[in-house]
Design a protein that fits this description.
single chain, 387 residues, alpha+beta, 11 helices, 21% strand, globular
Length: 387
């Protein structure tokens, strides 16, 4: 019998009590910070993208002027607050430390703050930082494309409340594993970062063209089309057609087709199907740099495939002009990503302008050159995946 089992037998022989999260904690929803007021310093804005699995990200930090604090004083965060993502990859949790402060809670991020001394915040962190909870959160989230989790559902989530000595022992053990894992991750990340920079350099070099190839505006060689329209939550129950989600496009350079997400489609509906060689783009995001992330359907499929309404597609007039596997690399190249980011506009959320997008300039190398580049970059991708 280990120490935790001994403590449970000694302190709660009849079993551990479960209570609703809302009974033990205060759950806060975020404030609608305006991105056009972001500054280079001040109050850090904690956004969805900052909350990664089990930790806070320090990439692309955003700040708000300190002098505006009175507007959002109810959303100021504290040390040891838990923050959780409510949109997209819902259920990710991280814990704030002093170095993250001062900070304000952005919309679609929840703050979980303990009300009393019956439960340790660090214990809650480890409890929620489990795959089992994230799966449950995703399952109970709403939305066909981009998932949204309700704080009402979260408040009713049942959590165990073991005696404090048991909680502390669990925290001590898991913190030790976390520290060891962090040390190993740091060493591995340093090696991965060096390799990725090498690969990125070669990718950029291979996808940089001069006068030896023709260039054109994307709007001259194809057409844009929208995702599904007029769909409700019920249409994603017992669907009859495969459905490409926002995250499928955002996260994958090539569309994943081995998916089990379906939508109900009537044959009489005038909806756009995704076809082989189509380039799909995310239509909106919190930052312009994340707008227009691309994915390409590189497989020839026979079953119907549909795109969610938060994305849009691009279809070539002449499909012999480009190899789909070349397009998947081309539209994720740094120079193209920069151009695409400039087609987005907005205040609290950025949206792609298809009119401006149509003016994006792309190179048109010969098919033989495209195939050579694909062969090299596929090799790089395989090597990177093995790291």
């Amino acid at each position: 019998m280990n120490k935790i089992e001994e403590l449970i037998q000694q302190l709660c022989p009849e079993g551990v009590v479960y209570k609703e999260l809302g009974e033990m904690t205060k759950i806060l929803n975020g404030y609608a910070f305006k991105s056009n007021k972001y500054t280079s310093s001040g109050i850090r804005v904690i956004r969805i993208s900052d909350v990664q699995k089990g930790k806070m990200s320090d990439k692309d930090l955003k700040y708000y002027p300190i002098e505006m604090m009175d507007e959002f004083k109810s959303y100021i965060l504290k040390e040891n607050d838990l923050v959780m993502s409510l949109t997209g990859n819902v259920g990710r949790v991280a814990m704030l430390s002093e170095r993250h402060l001062p900070a304000g809670l952005n919309q679609r991020v929840a703050c979980i703050r303990t009300k009393n001394k019956e439960i340790l915040t660090r214990f809650l962190f480890h409890f929620f930082d489990q795959n089992q909870f994230e799966i449950g959160a995703m399952t109970n989230a709403t939305g066909g494309g981009q998932k949204n989790m309700s704080t009402t559902w979260l408040a009713k989530y049942m959590i165990p409340i073991p005696p404090l000595p048991v909680q502390q022992e669990i925290v001590t053990i898991l913190d030790t594993f976390t520290e060891l894992e962090a040390e190993l991750e740091a060493e591995l990340e340093a090696e991965l970062e060096a390799r990725k920079k090498q690969y990125e350099y070669y990718r950029n070099e291979l996808l940089t063209f001069g006068d030896e190839v023709e260039f054109t505006e994307i709007g001259k060689i194809g057409d844009f089309y929208g995702g599904l329209t007029g769909k409700s939550k019920d249409d994603f129950q017992d669907g009859n057609a495969k459905f490409v989600t926002y995250m499928n496009v955002f996260s994958n350079i090539a569309v994943k087709t081995d998916i089990d997400i379906f939508v109900k489609i009537d044959e009489k509906e005038n909806q756009n199907r995704v076809e082989y060689g189509d380039v799909l783009f995310t239509g909106s995001s919190e930052t312009p740099d994340e707008c227009g992330m691309s994915s390409v359907l590189t497989e020839k499929i026979t079953e119907p495939l549909y795109l969610n309404s938060f994305c849009f597609g691009f279809r070539l007039h002449d499909k012999e002009l480009f190899l789909p596997n070349f397009l998947k690399y081309l539209f994720r190249d740094n120079s193209l990503r920069k151009q695409i980011g400039q087609t987005a506009s907005g205040v609290t959320r950025f949206n792609i302008s298809k009119k401006r997008f149509a003016k994006v300039i792309i190179p048109m190398p010969p098919i033989a050159v495209q195939q050579e580049i694909v062969t090299i970059l596929d090799t790089f991708t395989e090597l990177e995946a093995e790291l």
